[in-house]
Structures are given as C-alpha cells and as structure tokens.
User: Fold these one by one.
Assistant:
Number 1:
Amino acid sequence: MAAQSDFEKRTYNYLRLAMIGVLIMLAVAVWREHRQTASDCWQGSISAYYYTPVHAVFIGTLVTVGVCMIVLKGASTLKDVLLNLGGLLAPVVAFVPTPNAGSCWSKELVSRGAADDIGNNMVAYFWVGSIALLVSLVVGLTAKGSAKWIWKQKLGLGVSVALWLAGIIWFRTSRDSFDNNAHYTAAALLFAAIIGIVVLSALGQRHLPVTGAQEKKAFTRIYGLIAIGMALSLLIGVIFRSSAILWVEIALLGLFLLYWILRTAEQWRAGQETTPDIPAELHKV
C-alpha cells in the first residue's frame, strides 16, 4: 500500500508540474517571437500569437492546461467545479482563434480558412466532451458510500452540462456568431474561473497542513496578495480597455503561474507530512 501511495503521490505532483511547464513554455515562445520581430513590437493579445510561429505552442498549452484542470481534484467542491469549468473552456480558447489577427509577427503564417479549422476541431471536441460528461453523470449517479456525490457536485456537473449544451446550440444555430465571439466568451469565463480558484485559496479553504499553522497562514496571505494583484489587473484592463489587453493577460497568467507554483510547493510539502497509507488526502488543488 505504501509503495502504491508513493506512486500515486508522485504522479499527482508531476501532473501539477506539467501545468507549470507548459505555461513557462508559452511565455518563452511569446518572448522569443517578440525578439524575432523586426520592429520589436507586440501583438495586441496573447491570443493573437495564434497567428504567429507561436501557433502550435499556444494551442498545445491551452489543451494541456484544460486537461490538467479537469483531472486535478479541488480541495473544496466549489474549487473543483471552477477547475472543471476552466478545463472545459481552455481548449475552446485554443480551437477558436481571436478574429483580430494583429500585425506584429516575425513571419506571417500561411493559414487555412479559420472557419474550416474551427468546424473540424470543435465538432471533435464536442464529441469527446459529451462522452466525458456522460461518463461523469453515470459515475455521479451510481456512486455509493463515501464516494457518493453531494448536491454541490451534482450542481457543478449540471452547470458544466448546461454550458456544454449552450456551446453546441450556439455552434449549430449561429455559426458566424460562434466563430467571431466564442473565443472572447470562453477566455473571459476561463479567467473568471482562474481568479475564483485563487480567491478561494486566499480565503484559506481547506488547505492541507504543511509544517505548521504559521506556514499555512503565510501561504494563505500570499494567495491573498495574488488575488489582489489579479483584481488590480482587471481594473487596469477596464480603464485602458483594448490598449492594455496583452499586459492584463500577461499579468493574470503570470500571477496564476506564481499561484500554481506556490500551491504545488505547499502540496508537495504537505505530501511529505502525510502518512503514506492515505494518498487520497493529497489529491487537492
């Protein structure tokens, strides 16, 4: 049991590290592309780097982040719901590009028609997402004992299903509107979920013990500062609007990356303090 527990804990921790790795990879790709441009310019948003040589890294990062957010278990039901919702939305941000391609690139990509790409990729995503939600529904309704879902988990799944159906209906009934607006809608909701996750950690919701109450309190305070930084970033975005989109996105993603690194460090140390026969207690975000 101890050996199996150690294997599970290491797998879980490495999954957390994967999210850190791909976010850093995206940052490096964007920075390198910026340095390669003749005018040393920036695109208007991180999403606009979809149209630059960052293309593959941008899509791969968002898909990986989405998978990790869904797989990882939240420390509270609400945080778990936010992780799942964010995980559902991240691939949409990747598969439906922003209509604003920008004009700053080291080399313009020769792209196929966006509508064809969106149609193929989103249909595939809707199919696999529908299967995943159906499996989650079956698991939730048939779970017994300590694994039985509470009403908050059922409500969270209901919200996910409703969001999923709304996306399918939007895609099928108003394709032009979907192609032009789904990216912005999914990105806004994704950032809202990310901010919500950080705020819940800042409120000290069900942290695992690390080495003592003082250290736990220190982590919680730092999460509070990160949440305040995110709020200030959003305020700047509201004030300066389109001229600040890129920097607001960089600030939000940078702060989330900092949060994720600190939370992973906290979790890692908590795992060292946890008895090896209770691996389930480690599976919290």
Number 2:
Amino acid sequence: MNERVMNERVVIIGGTSGIGLAAARRQLSEGRDVVVTGRNPERLRDALDELAVLADTLSTPDASDTSDRPGTSGAPGRVSGSVVDAQDEAATREFFAGLGRVDHVVVAATGSTAAGPFRSVTTDALRQATEGKLMAHSLTARAALDILSPTGSITFVTAASAGAAMPGTAGLAAVNASVAAMVPVLAVELAPVRFNAVSPGIVDTPWWDWMDADAKAETFAAYAKSTPAGRCGHPEDIADAISFLVGNSFTTGVVLTVDGGARLASGA
C-alpha cells in the first residue's frame, strides 16, 4: 500500500449515503483516514458502523489473496464522523477548525431537486436547491482551505444534468452548472490546491427517492436503453472516478463526466 496514501486524511461532506458513502468506502480501502459528515444523526451512525466493519475486514489479511489491489493488505484507514449541515457556514467552519490537517475534501452534499417543468418550479424550490448544492459546495471549500494541505485537493460532485438539455431539469441544470463552473476558476486561483469535479449521469442512489417507484423505474429503464453502457450508474462507478481525481496529483481544473456515454447518445 502506498505509504503517502496511508498518511493522508480525506473528509467527505455528505458521506453517509449514495455516492458519498461509496466514496468513503473506496478511500478507506485505499488506506486513507476517512471523516464523513451528514445532517442526519441516525444515518451518520449507520454509515460509521458500516465503515467500521469494512475497516475491520480490511485489517485482516486474506492469505488466499496475493494481488496488490488497494486495501487487500496492510492497514486500512481510520474512520470518524460528525453531524454537520453543509449549509450552515458557522458550523462548517467550526467542524473544519477542529480537525487539524486535512489532505483531501470531497463534497457530495445535495439539496432539493428543483425538478419539473420550468413554469411550475417555485421560487422556494430554486432557492433551496441553490442553497443545498451551490452554497453547500462553496461554503465547504472556503472553510476547508483554512486547514487543507497545500498539496491537497477538493473534489465537487455536480451532475450531468448541467449540460444534458433535458426538459424538466432547468433548475437542476442551473445549480449543477454553477458548481461545475467554479472548478477551473478555483484550480487557477487557489493553486497549488487541486480543484476537480465529477459529473455523474443517472446513478441509483437514495437521491431518487423523491420519485414514486413506477416513475423511477421508467426513468432508469429509458436512461439505460439510451446509453452506450446499457445501464444506469452505481455509486461505486462514481467513487472510482473520485478516487482518480483525489489520487492523481497532475489533474486539476477537470470536470469528469461519468454518465455511461449518455452525452454521446444525445449528441451533446
């Protein structure tokens, strides 16, 4: 296991479910210390229990496994977590101030959907979506800079809706495009800290629970049929992409689209 990685610490904001939790599992298996946050105490407790079990499993060498895959041997990272609302600037700054040095930050915080026909999307829905995503990412990045390693990284999680031109997603597109637009600017302005983002297509996570089961199944089936990959994404697909952005010290200012090729099928 890479000694440099074993000495690193990564904070995952919104790391208690979906993409954030998958990223936490991946970072832990690579040997980094992992700190996860979430707004829901019960969900945080469940995530920490799961990650603790994973850490125990990784710390037990498997004699039958002779590969050099990350996390299959050696010491896994340590796990901790806190209840933090990423929309609360004071709480977010207090959280980071109490951590000491941090090497990497992944922001997987999400807000309300603001989905639906543009004429019917309410002002409140747009405001809540902006605060839950754009503001949460911005506030987190600013708070993290105070204690972030100068050779570290911040990785945002935006969404492919930013450039998909899909009817009924204007609110989503606006918020996610705003997050993506910050990336190249911050990569230059705040260098040598690296700023990147991953931009997922449709991924099967609890975020979609706002839809009823039939509508969700129909949406997922249509997406899978339209993509070259022939399926919707899994949280682990996005965690793999995040792992690359965190670990590759020559990559900055990149918004990495991971959508199963949906952008190709749409001609975008």
Number 3:
Amino acid sequence: MPTGHEQQLDRDQDRERDQARSVDRKGGPGHTVLLALALAVPALKVAYTVGGGSHVRDVFVGMEPGNWPDVLLGMVLTEPLLGCVLGVVVSRVVFALFAARGAVPGGDGFVRTLRRIALTVVNPLAVGVIAACCYGGWWGLATGLAAFALREGVVVEYRAGRRGHHHDPAYEPPGWLRRAARSEQWVAAALTVVVLPLLAVGVSLDGRAWTSVLECQVQDGTETGAQRLVELGRKGNGVVGWSLDREEIVNGTGCTDTGSLRVRAAWWNS
C-alpha cells in the first residue's frame, strides 16, 4: 500500500499533468503572444514607416480594413528570420493543441506508428516547404528541422504520461530523451515569448515598407510629376498609395517598382 506521502506526490503529479494539458488545450502563451502580435505589430509598423499621428489613420483608411493582414504578411515575407520563427512557433502551438485532445496515438503497432510519424513529420515538412519557397532551401531546411524537434518533445511527454492522461504503458523513453523533452519546453517558451516578439518589433522599426515602393505619376493640381508611393491598393489601371513626398494618400498611374523597400532610417540608426 502506498504511504500518505506517496499518495500526495501522485496527486501533485496528476495536478501538474492536468495543468499542462489544460494549457495546451487553450494554446498556452503561444496563442496570447500570436494574438497580441497580430494586433499590435501592424499598427507599429505603419506608425513608424509613415510617421505616426494622423498619417496612420489615413493609411489604414486608404488600405481598407480587409487589408490589415497585408501589413503583417508583408513583414513576414520580407524578413526570413521572422517568418521562419513564426512558422516554428505556430507549428508547435497547433500540434500541442491537438495533442492535448488525444491526437498522439500510443502503442507500437504499424498503423499507430505510421500515424504518429505522420502527425510528427507532415506539418514540419509543410512549414519547411513554405519557408523554402519564400526564402530559399537552407531557410526551409532549418525551419522544418526546428519545427520537428520542438514537436517531438511534445510527443515524448504525452506518451510518457508527463502531460494529460494519454500515457502509453509500453513506452519508456531513455533518460536523455526525457531531458531533451524538458529542454525543448524551455526552447519553445523562449522562442514564443522572447525571440518572436523581439524580431517582430525589430522588423516594425527597420524603416522598410511592408509592401512595394513605387515611382508613379501623380497629378498635383494642373501639374503631373513623379512621386514615390507606398502601395496600399490598386484601382483600375492605377495605384492608391501613400505619397512619401506629399505625405498623403494619392492616386498614381504609370507606376514602376523602385527596387527598394527603404523608406526611412531604422529606429536604432535614427
């Protein structure tokens, strides 16, 4: 018969597993950080790029509400490190969410092993392919491997019974794998709550536009001249953009790409 102390330890362990599983089911800090970044980072990017104040309101009105995600998407596509870290974090948050609902199968049968491999490999592979298409092969390889490593720790913890009640009695990971799984938690937390926010803020303040910077013909009264525009949308044959020369929303025609996203000096160089 277990002693009272042993029973208390078992209750404490069950409580810790339930708390960890509950955190995973709710997305943990990952969901909170991702939501905060999705709301705050586009506003910060636009504010620093166009100068803040009423300019921010004008730009968002010119973009229309449906185009708000374009700012975040543009930041991700123009900064490989931000895009890759974001892909790794999203991959792990989504996998932990499904694992908390019993998506990690136990046992050593062929079908269960195949399913477990698919759950562990397919998503990192997809994230790696997307990164490779956007940034190049080496970025894609690094992103896929990092996403796989961070979700493998989740598999070990659920199969070993350290999270939730999906313990696989036939599974006993070696000590080094348990330590690696615990280290994975710290690495994932650091990426989610430290590295990703710092990267996002850094890209917001780097002085580059989130979309194309064009040179267009803009009518000013009775005269027409060339101006640099941050593209906000397209209307017919023209472009609606933020004029960097006049600091207002204008309509441009005959636009050509300037070949650079640089609008102003980065915050740390200003």
